[in-house]
Amino acid sequence: MASNGYRNGTGTNKGAIKPPASSNIRSSSFKSRLPPSSNHSPGSALRRTSSASFTTAAGGDGVPGRVRVAVRLRPRNAEESTADADFADCVELQPELKRLKLRKNNWESETYEFDEVLTEFASQKRVYEVVAKPVVESVLDGYNGTVMAYGQTGTGKTFTLGRLGEEDTSARGIMVRSMEEILVNVSRETDSISVSYLQLYMETIQDLLDPANDNISIVEDPRTGDVSLPGATHVEIKDEQSFLELLRLGEAHRIAANTKLNTESSRSHAILMVHVKRSVLGEEVAIPTESDKSSHFVKPPKPLVRKSKLVLVDLAGSERVQKSGSEGHMLEEAKSINLSLSALGKCINALAENSAHVPIRDSKLTRLLRDSFGGTARTSLIVTIGPSPRHRGETASTILFGQRAMKVENMLRIKEEFDYKSLARRLEIQLDKLIAENERQQKAFDDEVERINLEAQNRVSEVERNFTDGLEKERLKCQMEYMESVKKLEEKMIENQQKHQHDGFMKDKCNGEGPGFCEDIAVIKKLLEKETHMRKEAEKEVNKLKSQLGQHMDAGAGGDAEILKLQIALEDEVHQKKKLEEEIIILRSQMLQLTFEADQMRRCLARGGSGNAYPGLDSPMSQVRDSLSGHKTPVSALFDQVGVEKILDLLESEDANVRIHAVKVVANLAAEEANQERIVEAGGLTSLLMLLRSYEDETVRRVAAGAIANLAMNEANQELIMVQGGISLLSTTASDAEDPQTLRMVAGAIANLCGNDKLQATLRSEGGIKALLGMVRCRHPDVLSQVARGIANFAKCESRASTNGIRSGRSLLIDEGALPWIVQSANNDAAPIRRHIELALCHLAQHEANAKDMINGGALWELVRITRDCSREDIRSLARRTLNSSLLFRSEMRRLRIEL
Ligand code: ADP
Ligand code: MG
């Protein structure tokens, strides 16, 4: 055995330390951390031959990590202090040299070297830091880890591992400290920790968290070689307190038989398994799809889950059977304990010597610990020894066990799985966002097209009108001027003729040509010239007009150019839309591909029989309705550009189509809270109410009512609506409209008003409640749901006012005769209607003034039903509380022998 140990030569060779007998042992510190997993260079990883490995399926890349061994000496106890008073301790520690001397007799001793030598004065904190902390840190990084205590009964294994340290925090053992460290380092949102606590006793595995579960079998994954215990209880750990309670519970169940050596000693192996599951984001990976050329496409980083396991083992006492003084059944028991322990020893020997066969299957303990020795886990062993020279033999064998374990080399490896579930979830959200954005853009696009068409039509007709008017005016002017000129000319001619006749007569009389005739001719000539000049002027005027006409025509052509520009913009929009649709198709195909891959993976795992199959993709679709925050919707952007006044002006347009479009746009804008104030300020509410009054078209009325319902969500608007006589208009519409969608909008608007504490009395006196109830004649579920919401709102406000002492007496709803419908609808098939009515009943029942009517109207039965059948726990308990706090209901229930 000497060749296996780090000890000096016995006897004469005192003081000289032999060099390590095996190259497996390195000088690296006990605390050395692993390199970060992302930097692993696959080529640098050492590989163990499978024959020398505890784990048969441990192939692949990893980092070498030798099993680290520390020795801890327990201080003398009271008995030893008396009984061994005259004797020296059987060991002498040299912690600074990491050496331990085992005395053979007064002259001779053997020296052994360990990774850590912990004296009887070593604090629990220090023991945790040198033995367990590096392992826990590895587990947090995604590696498996093992911390195991080995030693004779009574030497402090449980003290080292399992102390809870409730009275004295400095006494906390490795189990408690490890969990503290894990809890501090994991994220509550994305990571999870669960614990199983087991006992291996007489080759039977028992569940310390559920003692009835006393024969748990070990399952090995033939593909990965992973060992799991599917039958064991797993408890999720959220805080340290729950973990401590769990340890206490486990300890209470642990079989501890008395032995000669220590009354508290245990002959079972206690195994605590901490399962750590952490989410990590890998590098961004391109998901290969055919259409993956698009560079602007967002590729989500690859989500990974790291599953690691920390195994803490408090072994049974390593002493030989006869020492424990057992007999009969106890002897059988001791043999069984020895079976697991000796199998562990054999496996460690085989691994230390690189033997071809490692007898893992010989015991349950070695099967459970296959990953801890020669596997992929980071392992620390603490061997505990006592000082008494009487137990020198046991101490020596414990030391040799530790020495052999130091030669076992593990190959540490991270287990990462691709987190399909979270990737699918993220893609779904992205897809939903894109769909919503596409819908919004489509709407804005339609509105924009309508607006542009309208604008273009208006402009063309205006240009046409101006042109025709101008032309007509000019034509008339020319005609008049022309006629005037002709008239003047005719007059002149008549005058001339008369003059001529008279002059001829005079000439005949005078018998000769007088100078007067020639003068006349000159005058006529002048007149003619003047006329010619005027005609030329008129012609000029006509030409001028013609050129003006040409200019108008050009202006018309300019308008055409603008329309052309708008058309190009439109085409751009169409192009954009197409691009978005293409992106959605790409995303969908990715989703399909992923679903397919995940399915395949699941099937493959299922075939492999693994206990930890990938989680399915069956999570419900996340509903993401929010637009990208901080971005204006296209409708709002349009709103900014066009201006609210212009849009409202269109509500009064002569063209019915324009009015319909305009009211739709206003309704859309009113749906966004940010626009409501501007709409109301610009008189939009008044315009919409006017539209309701001057009803001419069902669409206009429906859309106007919808817009009013949207504005009525805001408290300030609710008061304005009342002041402007909105409730009587809504009531009139409620009574004469037939269209269910119009009624739904009106009911929605009134339901919003019902939720305003200040308006209760006015609503009732102006007929609002009657109007609301009147609409149930239309049996459409959408309308009924709004009516139910209005009633629930009203009842809530009343209940609040009663509680605050502002009102008293019976509910106005009961006064208005709403109770029969409420009772009748309490069990409606449609969930939204039922839910509102259930709440309304609970609010009404909170006030004793309503109780009598409610009992007479059958509402008590419905409330009792709600306490039993309602699917929502909060409403069930609200109904129960309400019923229990009413004297009248309680006595009626007693009378009817109803028990909640
Ligand atoms: P084991 O689990 O190995 O049988 P225990 O942990 O039950 O041993 O320890 C036996 C006794 O010795 C207990 O009373 C324990 O409190 C005490 N003991 C063990 N180790 C130490 C130590 N390092 N310092 C003080 N007391 C110790
Ligand atoms: Mg113990």
TrEMBL record:
SMART domains: ARM, KISc. Its main location: cytoplasm. ATP binds at residues 151-158. Residues 66-408 form the Kinesin motor domain. ARM repeats lie at residues 642-684, 683-726. One of its GO terms (molecular function) is plus-end-directed microtubule motor activity. GO terms for biological process: microtubule-based movement; mitotic spindle assembly; spindle elongation. Residues 424-451, 521-597 form a coiled coil. It is found in: Cytoplasm, Cytoskeleton. Keywords: ATP-binding, Coiled coil, Cytoplasm, Cytoskeleton, Microtubule, Motor protein, Nucleotide-binding, Repeat. GO terms for cellular component: mitotic spindle; spindle microtubule. It comes from the Eukaryota. Residues 22-38 have a biased composition (Low complexity). Gene3D superfamilies: Kinesin motor domain, Leucine-rich Repeat Variant. Residues 1-59 are annotated as: Disordered. Residues 1-13, 39-56 have a biased composition (Polar residues). Interacts (via C-terminus) with NEK5. Belongs to the TRAFAC class myosin-kinesin ATPase superfamily. Kinesin family. Ungrouped subfamily. This is Kinesin-like protein. It comes from Gossypium barbadense. The lineage of its organism: Eukaryota, Viridiplantae, Streptophyta, Embryophyta, Tracheophyta.
